[in-house]
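pipeline stage [seq->struct] | target=Pseudouridine synthase | organism=Hymenobacter glaciei | residues=236
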Amino acid sequence: MNRPNLWSEGREILFEDNHLLVINKPAGILVQGDATGDEPLSKKAAEYLRFKYKKPGEAFVGVCHRIDRPVSGIVILAKTSKALSRLNEMFRDDNIHKTYWALTGRPPVPENGTLVHWLVKDTIRNVTKAYPEKHSQGLRSELSYELLGMAGNRYLLQINPVTGRPHQIRTQLATGLGTPIIGDVKYGFIAPLPDVSIALHARQLQLQHPVTKEVITLVAPLPDAPHWDAAREYYK
């Protein structure tokens, strides 16, 4: 069996035990397969586990949440059906504390606050629209944000979504603050990044382990991309 060229522990593999596999997803990779037919993170993870544990058949990999293809950062995968079921419930009930970092071209006004919108997903165009008032077809979406400071000539924001909706952070920053994320041309930024990613990173997750019940905090290093270089000084 040839070793697949996948990940290294500590960089891409952030945590692994009998029930969980936590990956620092590179931008550009799908979490779960779609109509493009491109190999998703879930398939890569199954290959990784199959090789590592010399499994004769397919390894179990359960997807309990997703981050967008052009977004980097933490993705939790379940290695057992018990973990998958409990993680699904935790994400559904918003019982996982999520922290994202984003780079924008202008500062948010005010510099910190809470945004509440009703989001409507256009599945055909794959875009989400945010409404400031209750919308009959919308899902209530809430996040808090704060400006951490300048990162070169950009602004580094920390975002804590209370809910988990498709494209939530991207559309709420663009609509609610007028601060589209660097590279996110879908939501109003003027130009793409060279690697076609967007400057949004799932930085940290804090949760109760679905089986052991231990509280764990997972932190993902920033991608090795030039647009993130100036943000590294904000590491704690």
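stage status: PASS
auto-comment: Helices lie at 41-52, 81-92, 168-177. The chain has three helices and eleven strands.
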